[in-house]
Automatic annotation (TrEMBL):
<keyword id="KW-0521">NADP</keyword>
<keyword id="KW-0677">Repeat</keyword>
<keyword id="KW-0520">NAD</keyword>
<keyword id="KW-0288">FMN</keyword>
<keyword id="KW-0863">Zinc-finger</keyword>
<protein>
    <recommendedName>
        <fullName>tRNA-dihydrouridine(47) synthase [NAD(P)(+)]</fullName>
        <ecNumber>1.3.1.89</ecNumber>
    </recommendedName>
</protein>
<dbReference type="InterPro" id="IPR035587">
    <property type="entry name" value="DUS-like_FMN-bd"/>
</dbReference>
<keyword id="KW-0507">mRNA processing</keyword>
<keyword id="KW-0479">Metal-binding</keyword>
<feature type="domain" description="DUS-like FMN-binding">
    <location>
        <begin position="3"/>
        <end position="231"/>
    </location>
</feature>
<dbReference type="GO" id="GO:0006397">
    <property type="term" value="P:mRNA processing"/>
</dbReference>
<dbReference type="GO" id="GO:0102265">
    <property type="term" value="F:tRNA-dihydrouridine47 synthase activity"/>
</dbReference>
<keyword id="KW-0862">Zinc</keyword>
<dbReference type="InterPro" id="IPR018517">
    <property type="entry name" value="tRNA_hU_synthase_CS"/>
</dbReference>
<dbReference type="GO" id="GO:0003723">
    <property type="term" value="F:RNA binding"/>
</dbReference>
<keyword id="KW-0285">Flavoprotein</keyword>
<comment type="similarity">
    <text>Belongs to the Dus family. Dus3 subfamily.</text>
</comment>
Length: 316
């Protein structure tokens, strides 16, 4: 996600977010903003200057700072402005425009079902619904029945669902025999980056701690390639690694689980892994994440402080 105003101001760090890696065979750019002029100009720049397959409008971000400016989830409550933004962005885009939103703003007052037929009529190509309201954040499970009702009302525009998927079985039970055409996976991809292989191959992969460590190594190598291997590049890579480790430790190895599959909100009792590395990778302790970072990036500099940015790593 990039902020439309930061893009228009030419902020280098924001433009860096829009860079497509050669390994990405499908690449969408999500933008966040609250006004049709900035969002449309931004869409035009993406259309004319970049190689993207689609543009996604963020109508789901719950963060106060964004919401109070009328951006993210706030757009769901302003139908006229929403329509103006969509129609205006559509007029400059040659690639599909999609929308990501929530069930609504307030708990117990879902509004997505009123919005999806409108979005279809405004010619949006696809909508993703995260099955929780702004107020709910990550409390309560995502409401996939409601997502399915929205998918029925949106036809023939496809609706994707989003929320709590951590295994191919989670996905199957939400997609099979429903009108939901696909899904997006967020925390599941951070906790278990191999989830896409599991879905493709319809199996639970009892991945070894060495295989997981190889993935961490390759993340670090990509980080150093991107940010450079000087002191600043190393420390930027370390911060991104630590953010990721604050999710990654939540994976419970298949061979250790009492019953498969793991559910995303399942907090396991403290367990000992099948070797020291597996135990280390399961640690919820920030000091252990620093230790893992030191194994690959060298000693943490004096005075280094780390607190995970995203509260979503909190369990329900
Ligand atoms: C670290 C993190 C960053 C996120 N950033 C975005 C974002 O930029 N845009 C967005 O639409 N949703 C974002 N989300 C929300 C997810 O896309 C998703 O809607 C939510 O986490 C529920 O799906 P999940 O249960 O698969 O995690 C983010 C979530 C997490 C955990």
């Amino acid at each position: 996600m990039a902020m439309a105003t930061n893009i228009l101001q030419g902020q280098m760090s924001e433009w860096a977010l829009l860079k497509r890696h050669k390994s990405e065979d499908l690449f969408g750019i999500q933008i966040c903003g609250g006004w049709s002029d900035t969002l449309t100009r931004c869409a035009q720049l993406i259309n004319d200057e970049l190689v993207a397959d689609f543009v996604d409008l963020n109508c789901g971000c719950p963060i106060d700072l964004i919401y109070k400016k009328g951006e993210g989830c706030a757009l769901m409550g302003k139908t006229n402005k929403f329509e103006q933004i969509i129609r205006s962005m559509k007029s400059v885009l040659e690639i599909p425009l999609t929308v990501k939103m929530r069930t609504g703003i307030m708990d117990n007052k879902s509004i997505a079902h009123h919005l999806v037929p409108k979005l279809r009529d405004w010619d949006v190509s696809m909508v993703t619904i995260h099955g929780r309201s702004r107020e709910q954040r990550y409390t309560k499970s995502a409401d996939w029945d409601y997502i399915d009702q929205c998918a029925e009302l949106a036809k023939p525009m496809p609706v994707f669902g989003n929320g709590d998927i951590l295994s191919y079985e989670d996905l199957d039970c939400h997609i099979k025999e429903t009108e939901v055409k696909g899904c997006m996976i967020a925390r599941g991809a951070l906790i278990k980056p191999w989830i896409f292989t599991e879905i493709k191959e319809q199996r639970h992969w009892d991945i070894s701690s060495n295989e997981r460590f190889e993935m961490i190594k390759s993340f670090v190598n990509n980080g150093l390639e991107h940010w450079g291997s000087d002191q600043q590049g190393v420390e930027t890579t370390r911060r991104f690694l630590l953010e990721w480790l604050s999710f990654l430790y939540r994976y419970i190895p298949v061979g250790v689980l009492e019953s498969v599959p793991q559910k995303i909100n399942q907090r396991p009792p403290k367990y000992i892994g099948r070797n020291d590395l597996e135990t280390l990778l399961s640690s919820p302790n920030c000091g252990d994440w620093l230790k893992i970072s030191e194994m690959l990036l060298g000693p943490v500099p004096d005075g280094f402080n780390f607190l995970p940015k995203h509260k979503a790593n909190a369990y329900m």
